[in-house]
Amino acid sequence: MKPLSLSKVYRLIEPGPVVLLTTAMEGRANVMTLSWHMMVEFEPPRLACVVTWGDHSFAALRETAECVIAVPGVELAPLVVQIGNCSGRDVDKIATFGLETQAAERVAPPLLPQCFANLECRVVDATLAERFNLFVLEVVKAWTDPAVAETRIFHHHGCGEFSVDGERIRLESRMR
Question: C-alpha angle 144/148/149, rounded to 5°?
Fold first, then answer.
């Protein structure tokens, strides 16, 4: 074993797929790329995500307490990275990138139908938002595209490196 720079630890622990997070505030929808998130409960489904104070979406998420987490397939990876490389402060990302939107059922931010799954979420705990940029979200409605038979998601490992889901294996588990 040899020492690893602490600035590279996140590259080992990155928990989940790269997703898109939509918010809406004062009649304007925004979208950001997000990869710092994790499941924290199964029923009801809850997840935690880090949206830093420097992100344009932070204020909207804190003020409105709702968002949509859209899960793109790997075919959208170049677009998702472009979305993450600019700020909603400067660019109307939905218009600039030609994103199709669809009204959500239980929250104001839009669904992104080009993604194979969309999760309508409400913030249930923001006590750590100011200190750690951490929001706990509860999924209140979930959507999938029935036309998509198999999906491959991608994961961010930092510095422009990504991995794509590959072969799946099945092992005995008590999880449903």
Answer: 115
> In the chain, where are the structural domains located?
14-164
Q: Could you read off the pLDDT tens digit of each residue along the chain, which spans 176 residues?
A: 988 888 777 766 666 899 999 999 999 999 999 999 999 998 999 999 999 999 999 999 999 999 999 999 999 999 999 999 999 999 999 999 999 999 999 999 999 999 999 999 999 999 999 999 999 999 999 999 988 877 888 988 888 888 898 877 788 877 66
pTM: 0.91
- CATH fold for domain 14-164: Pnp Oxidase; Chain A (2.30.110)
Residue 48 β-bridge partners: 38, 136
